[in-house]
Amino acid sequence: MSQIDTKWPELYRQAILEPDRTLLPSRIDVAREAIQHRARELWYSDGSETKERRDLDVAMYFLGLLRKLETDAQTTSAQRA
Q: Is the pTM for the entire model greater than 0.85?
């Protein structure tokens, strides 16, 4: 297991809790990349359903939701300007 694979929960937390909206997109990208990498590793190792695999799915869902909310907020603020 590589270092990025063991760090995905921390990278996910950093993205979810990022208060700076200018840093948020890059935090989301880094977290998604780490999660996808770990998911591929799990898939090729045994492919069985595990708690970590479910955690990865949930994390990806919430990162996608966060990205959508951020995109919607940017669109709304641009329309008001």
A: no
